[in-house]
Amino acid sequence: MELLPASAKQGEVFTVSLRNSEPASNATATFAGLDYPMLWTGDIWWAVIGVAADLVAGQYQVQVIEDGLMNLPSVVLTVVEAAFPEEFIELAPEQSQLLTDPTAIEEERQLLASTYATITPERLWSGPFVLPAAGPTGDLFGMRRSFNGGPFSQHTGVDILAGEGQPVVAANSGRVAFAGELHLRGGTVIIDHGAGVFSGYHHLSQVLVVAGQEVAQGEVIGAVGGTGLATAPHLHWEMVVHGVRVDPLPWTQAEIGPSLSLQVPQLVEDEGGSDDGGGLGAQDTLAEGDGAHPQPAGELDLLEGEASLGADEQADDRDRLLLRRQQIAEAGLPLALPGQDAHAGGGGAGLVERQGR
C-alpha cells in the first residue's frame, strides 16, 4: 500500500493505492474514522481522500480493507497544520439579510450534501485542472473569517476576481451534477469528476449547462456574476472530495490520481482540454487571457462555509503526443480521449492559463 504524499496539510488531498495481481471484488480505505470506496484501474485499487481544513494535525492510520478483510498493515499519514490567515469583515444590512433565513440555508446545505454524497465509480478527469476563469485570485481557501464580529469560519474555496459576464469554464472533464440557483451561493454549477471528486462554480450570472450534461475541460459552463451572498462579481471555485472541501489550487499544479490507461501496453492518454475557439456559449472554450477584469481586493466573497451554516507530470512534448495517438490508432482503438492538445482546435484559442500555488 502506498500513500502519495506521505504527509498532507489541512485542506489538501492524498491518494492511497494498492497493487494486487489478483484483485479483490471490492476494497475500502479508512481514514480518520471514515470509509472511502476504492476504484480498480488497470492493476491497482486507489482512492483520493481529502483532509478537512479543521482536522486536528497529527498522525493518522490509513487502512485498506479487501473483501471485508483487514489483511494489510496500516500506513501512517501525517496531517500538517496549515497557517490559515484571519480576516474581519463587516457586512452591510442587505448582505446580512441572506443569513437570516435558516430554512433556505438548511435546504441549500442538504442539497449540497446529497449531491456530494454521490460516488461515480469511475474517473472522469484527466491531467491537471485549469483555472475556471481568467483573473487574479482573491480570498484563498481556508481563510478564517469573522463576519460582524461573529465566530470565525473558514473560506471553502478560492475566489477568482473576474468581471461580470466573463466566461467560466469546466476545470476538467466530467458530468454536471447540479445547475441552478442556491440561496447563498447564487447561480451554481457543480461538476462530478468521478471517484468522489466534484468542482463547484458559484455566484454565476448565467448558467449555460444542465444537470446530466457531459462537459470537457475548458468548455464554457456559465458566466461570472455576483449572485447570492457576494459584494461584487467574482467566481467562488470549490473542490470537494467525498464531501470534504479542499484547496482547489493544488489540482492545477499536477495530476492527482494514477495515470489513466487506455488498455494498450505502454500507452498513457494525453492531458489538456479541447478547444474550438469562438465566443461565450455552452460548447465554447475560454481563450487564453480573455476576460481578465480584476476587482479591488476589498470586494470579498461572503460565502462563509459549512461551519457558519449550522505521479507523473505528463509534460509530454507535441511529438510524443502525436506518436502516442498514432500508436493508439494503429492498435484500432478510438481516440475518445477526455482531453486533447489545447491548441489543436480551430480558431487558435487556448485554455485559460494554468495558475496555481
Descriptive report:
The chain is mainly β and 357 residues long. Strands 13, 15, 16, 17, 19, 21 and 22 form a seven-stranded antiparallel beta sheet that branches. A five-stranded mixed beta sheet has the order 2-9-8-4-5, with no helix packed on it. A four-stranded antiparallel beta sheet has the order 1-3-7-6, with no helix packed on it. 9% of the residues lie in helices and 30% in strands. β21 and β22 (244-246) form a beta hairpin. It contains three helices and 22 strands. Residues 261-279 and 281-357 have low confidence and may be disordered. It starts with a strand and ends in a 27-residue tail after the last helix. It folds into two domains: 2-80, Immunoglobulin-like (Sandwich); 86-348, Glucose Permease (Domain IIA), CATH 2.70.70. The chain has helices at residues 93-96, 102-116, 318-330; strands spanning 2-4, 7-9, 13-19, 27-31, 34-37, 39-41, 44-50, 58-66, 75-80, 86-89, 144-147, 152-154, 158-160, 167-169, 174-182, 186-194, 197-204, 206-207, 214-215, 220-223, 235-241, 244-246. It is globular.
Brief summary of the model shown:
The chain has 357 residues and is mostly beta strands. 9% of the residues lie in helices and 30% in strands. Strand 6 (39-41) and strand 7 (44-50) form a beta hairpin.
